[in-house]
Amino acid sequence: MVFDEERRATLKSMYFPLTLQQAAASPGGNAENSYFWYFQRTTMEKYDVVIVGAGPAGLICAEHLAAAGMKVVVLEKKAVVGDKVCAGGLTEKDLEILPVPDELIEVRMRESLLVAPHVRMHTHHPKPVLFTVDRRALGAWQAGRVQQQGGEVRTAAAVTAIGDGHVVTAAGERLAYRWLVGADGATSLVRRHLGLPLEKRIFTLQYRIPWHDEPRFEIHMNGRYFHSWYGWIFPHRNELVAGVGGDPRYVSTGWMKKRFHRWLERTGLDITDARYESFPISYDYRGWDFGNLFLAGEAAGLASGLTGEGIYQALVSGKAVADKILGRRDTFPEIDRILRYNTIQHKFMGVLIKAGPLRNMILDGILLYLKMNGKMKKRVSKALT
Fold first, then answer.
1. Which of 145, 169, 234, 272 has minimal Cβ neighbours within 10 Å of its Cβ?
2. Is-contact 176 48, C-beta < 8 A?
3. d(CA 367, CA 117)
């Protein structure tokens, strides 16, 4: 195929990752044919919105944008959507935003147990306070909702570079965007592209333990084992997820692992056939709206540094980003509420970090107060769920 001078000039004026000399050396037999090969390899796909990361934030954002008629693609680096290491717990406020079907809920818990060093509080709640799900099943369901609205979800499509108005995948694909959304978690490439530091994070570790007894939903607070954080036990279908987390600026991962295993022995949980997992959580918030670039969920650092909760923040921020792109509103009180909620938790976390040997006394005192004050107990439970 022969290119005329006008088309040749157009080619030269475009930005490509290869030089024309490299193109000429590529398959094609001669320079004229190599221009055609070069044009095919470097032509960009064009989208209104490219979303990096197919977690709850990215998928709910894509669903709302696609429903409004936007041309949207979600790029997920893993081969399976929803393959996220997570305790897998949802609360009532999550389900108010995302109407997860009944068949995806593995366990509904009305019973909870809070344990401090010398105080235990068992509560029977009038309605479920915890709903557990398999993250792969949740991800597949959310991806299906995106596709039903005309959006596109690509797996095994890791983004390796971000240019001026386009992204490049590991397969060499180049996708142009008008808006770019980083919903790519604690190690967000989009966040790094924006030059935002990441200093506040939690390192978590957990075991998935085979379990065929009564489901258990427990929160354990003890400075001896968890420093200023807590240990959790979440029920799933045929297993329990037991884990712990902490900020490595204040507690080393080695200390956490050692104390975590001591606590597992103390609680009688057998990890012989369990599957070990670990994952980071970012709570270093530095903003979410950067012109035509946005961050959502953990990429924005919206998770709680005390509890590690992040799905609710992901869903709220994903919807907010969609609304901002669509020009539906300019104020986002729900983001402000999340920031206030996180600030309160982080201030309490700071108190525990500084408390040192008084830490367990504070935890005992709080739990004892909640046991004696039913009104405050309900308020705390409502705020968390």
1. 272
2. no
3. 10
DSSP H stretches of helix in the chain: 5-13, 20-24, 31-42, 56-67, 92-97, 135-148, 189-193, 223-226, 253-267, 311-325, 333-355, 359-372, 374-384
**In this structure, how many other beta carbons lie within 10 angstroms of the beta carbon of residue 14?**
10
Could you identify the residue written with the tokens 């479920």? 128
| DSSP letter, residue 238 | T
pLDDT string in tens for the chain (385-residue length): 333 445 444 434 443 444 444 444 444 444 444 444 344 445 789 999 999 999 999 999 999 999 999 999 999 999 999 888 789 999 999 999 999 999 999 999 999 999 999 999 999 988 999 999 999 999 999 999 999 999 999 999 999 999 999 999 999 999 999 999 999 999 999 999 999 999 999 999 999 999 999 999 999 999 999 999 999 999 999 999 999 999 999 999 999 999 999 999 999 999 999 999 999 999 999 999 999 999 999 999 999 999 999 999 999 999 999 999 999 999 999 999 999 999 999 999 999 999 999 999 999 999 998 888 777 667 766 655 5
| Residue 204 bridge partners (DSSP) | 245, 279
Q: Which domains does the chain have, with CATH numbers?
A: 5-43 (no CATH), 49-384 (3.50.50.60)
- Please give the distance of CA 38 from its chain centroid, rounded to a whole number: 38
Chain-centre distance for alpha carbon 340: 19
DSSP string spanning 74-134?
EE-SSSSTT------EE-HHHHHHS---GGGEEEEE-EEEEE-SS-EEEEE-SS--EEEE-
